[in-house]
């Protein structure tokens, strides 16, 4: 186990914890932001795996555009009225 | 790297679990997005070779040594398009969710069941 | 309870099905023969310094064409699902007229926008556009390319939309840019068929010296149009989802 693999274990635990939290949180906005954080950490892992193109794309899409798209949809749902949480 | 492949498997499992057990439609779509991230991690981690560097040819990695010092470029190319398509499909699913909410007024997937007709009714 | 157990068993079986990815594909020592062919041919016969760009644009060019088509279908789907019916448009026009007549100047019922955001977005937006254009023009030299540049351009538009919620982007202009870029992309592919070895072959323009801006044949031109197409498509999705 080289040093980089030992370094990746806490990052991996952080991602798994973030993913489980994103699915079990009550507030939808917090869940969406947590899913964006999981994608951001994935883009760091792509840099470690020597794939800079994929890291750029994942950082821009996974953490920025996906969160924006989710929040726009949520704002539309809120404007339509009715319940939004479980 | 084996650690990243295992991490990808875990994310895939968590995303799939979230899609199958959660009741809120937005949570189901978040589960899909997490599953997507896991699959991309698996693909890129399979293409990694130990001690090698990014597939760019410049002064540090001259052309003659390209095949000996460079990571596999094919999984990167596949995952590049897959990430953008994942975003487009997520946007499409969210617009479906918006329309579903407009028709019934709730985001709970249990409210979208067809009414079960009991025996004896017309 | 029994349903949860069944779901767990299903996911475990799914993981078991994918297990050979972990155990049989051991740590590699050499590139696969296909990857060796692409790594040596990317600089040799295509003149591109970024090998991933060479694979995406030329060696797997048909996959990129398919991906661009899928993006177009998804954007059209989002635009169709969230279209405004004419009744909604009349309602909105009526609401806007009554709001203008009722308010005595100033913002009626709208939360005050942050000045930093609105001033900063006006200053940052041209810089972000230029950065995105730089990324997809230099796609064959540095990490980056059409998809990354297009996404950065869409993020710039997202910043602009977030700062001023009354701003409307014109769907017509965005769709015009998107369709033109897609048509030019296919036309360049056909040009490769006519002038060079096959569809989407990029060697019909001179290869030039490795590492310069005007090199690698038609790769920068194709990737620029892919970048414009992706940027305008994602901006279209954002604008459809907004209101």
Query: What is the alpha-carbon Rg of chain B in Å?
Result: 22 Å
Radius of gyration of chain C: 24 Å
Q: Approximately how much beta-strand content do the residues of chain B carry?
A: under 5%
Low-pLDDT regions of chain C: 102-109
Output the number of helix runs of chain C. 10
Q: What is the helix tally of chain B?
A: 4
Number of strands of chain C: 0
Biggest sheet descriptor of chain B:
none
Apparent shape of chain B: elongated
Chain pair with largest interface? B-C, 44 and 58 residues
Order of helices and strands of chain C: HHHHHHHHHH
SSE succession of chain B: HHHH
In which range does the helix fraction of chain B lie? 55-70%
Q: Can you give a write-up of this model?
A:
The complex is a heterotrimer of chains A (about 90), B (about 120) and C (about 240). Chain A has about 90 residues and is an all-alpha fold. Chain A has one domain (about 5-80). Chain A is built from 3 helices and no strands. Chain A has helices at about 5-25, 30-50, 50-80. With about 120 residues, chain B is an all-alpha fold. Chain B has one domain: Helix Hairpins (Orthogonal Bundle). Chain C has about 240 residues and is an all-alpha fold. Chain C contains 10 helices and no strands. Chain C is globular. Residues about 100-110 of chain C have low confidence and may be disordered. The chains are: A mainly alpha (about 90), B mainly alpha (about 120), C mainly alpha (about 240). Chains in contact: A-B, A-C, B-C. At the B-C interface, α1 and α4 of B face α1, α3, α4, α5 and α10 of C.
Brief characterization of the structure:
Chain A has 3 helices and no strands. Chain A has helices at 3-24, 28-48, 52-79. The longest helix of chain C has 25 residues, at 171-195.
How do the strands and helices of this protein lay out in sequence?
The complex is a heterotrimer of chains A (86), B (122) and C (243).
Chain A: H1 3-24, H2 28-48, H3 52-79
Helix pairs in contact in A: 1-2, 2-3
Chain B: H1 2-21, H2 25-46, H3 66-69, H4 73-104
Helix pairs in contact in B: 1-2, 2-4
Chain C: H1 2-17, H2 20-23, H3 33-44, H4 51-59, H5 61-81, H6 86-102, H7 115-137, H8 146-163, H9 171-195, H10 219-242
Q: Could you name the key traits of this structure?
A:
heterotrimer, B: 122 residues, mainly alpha, Helix Hairpins, 4 helices, elongated, C: 243 residues, 10 helices, 70% helix
